[in-house]
Amino acid sequence: MKLQDLTLKEFLEKTYGKDPVPGGGSISALCGALAASLAEMVTALTIGRKKYADVEEEMLKYAPQMELARRNFLNFIDEDAEAYQMVFDAFKLPKETEEEKKIRHDEIQRTTLHAAMVPLKVAETAVGIMDVIFNIGSKGNRNAVTDACVAMMCARTAAWGAILNVRINLTSLDDENKVKELENRCMALHDEAQVKEAALLDTVSF
């Protein structure tokens, strides 16, 4: 059974258990799914309200975008777990002969790069929906503005958590150019997420 198909209770039990998955990468993806879900809820609480008729068309456009993001994040939960298993399996390959050592080394490099690219997709997707969450939160139903803020915080957590998982994998890669390329991308996403989160939270006062 896929992780995304577990009940909430089952997922939590599996998380605190002895298995290494779901780990930080899958949880980051879950945070992204929560962000998209909350943002979509705010659109639903805005659409059909006379007070927000002037932004209804906008909300109708945002809702399916959040639905698609939610589905992507759910798939990332399992993709991250599968990527971890691939790396784990690579380390278990035989290493008795020089040829076996080379095959094992190459497979570790291949699977580790893949394991870095999955959370990078999570981070990119999370940062990619933050502008939409800002618009939903700043223009949507004001009674749900804090829900939009929580969505934004979840998106930032998804991004930052995923970036950590990219970086831990980069430490095992030999390709210095690829490592530098991905690290630069991580730095940009990290800073972008921070700025976008603050932009919405700064609009809220009580």
Overview of this protein structure:
Helix 2 packs parallel to helix 4 (98-139) and helix 3 runs antiparallel to helix 4 (98-139). It is built from 6 helices and no strands. The radius of gyration is 20 Å and the shape is elongated. The mean pLDDT is 97. The protein has helices at 8-15, 24-46, 56-91, 98-139, 145-170, 176-201. It is mainly α and 206 residues long.
Tell me briefly what this model is.
With 206 residues, the protein is mostly helical.
Quickly list its features.
206 residues, mainly alpha, 0% strand
Radius of gyration: 20 Å
Q: Give the overall shape, derived from the CA principal axes.
A: elongated
> What is the helix fraction of residues, given as a range?
over 70%
Measured between the Cα atoms of the first and last residue, the distance is 44 Å
Number of continuous helical runs = 6
The SS-based structural class is mainly alpha
SSE sequence, one letter per element:
HHHHHH
Low-confidence stretches: none
Kindly state the number of beta strands.
0
Taking the sheet with the most strands, its summary is: none
Strand content: under 5%
Mean pLDDT: 97
